[in-house]
Amino acid sequence: xxxxxxxxxxxxxxxxxxxxxxxxxxxxxxxxxxxxxxxxxxxxxxxxxxxxxxxxxxxxxxxxxxxxxxxxxxxxxxxxxxxxxxxxxxxxxxxxxxxxxxxxxxxxxxxxxxxxxxxxxxxxxxxxxxxxxxxxxxxxxxxxxxxxxxxxxxxxxxxxxxxxxxxxxxxxxxxxxxxxxxxxxxxxxxxxxxxxxxxxxxxxxxxxxxxxxxxxxxxxxxxxxxxxxxxxxxxxxx
Length: 238
Description:
Strands 1, 2, 3, 4, 5, 6, 7, 8 and 9 form a 9-stranded antiparallel beta sheet that branches. It contains 6 helices and 9 strands. The N and C termini lie far apart (54 Å). It is of the alpha+beta class.
């Protein structure tokens, strides 16, 4: 076992105090403030579940994270402690934020209803990009990401971008331009397109024409949803 695997932490760098700091920074986080032993068991269970969802063996996970396979096995079986540094490495390898490990799985809803106009507002494709509404923001671990996009709110030309997984777009209002694999297509209300998202693509508004579309991004890799958040900035200001 590597010496770095069981690095001794000072009390102010413990997992428990890290969770407390998350409460201060993220008051809406459904985090579980239990005793330290219970919290470490909860984190270990989350690590094991996420690793299996991504179809990662312990050997592959150890290679990616830079920790020993034996340590990860003991960690998942509640026989080894977890440090803040190691949890950060594991979170990066699994493409999830740290708070993912602090939210109890029992809090995860199995169904979400988003009423009209009540989704979480966001900006899609950068600060000059589209106004968007996240339709399943409360669901943390999901294989689809539904987003309602106001294409004509873009303040600059949207660059082509690729990402893992597949995507479905349905034009719910107006018309827009869809760019894919070097081709340009005009999509009108009621038109839809399903495509492999690892090919650079973009939607752009047509001058003077309103356009709204429902985009559903999907992946069986789960890690794609960590990448999706890179595309989203703070909710747009009025």
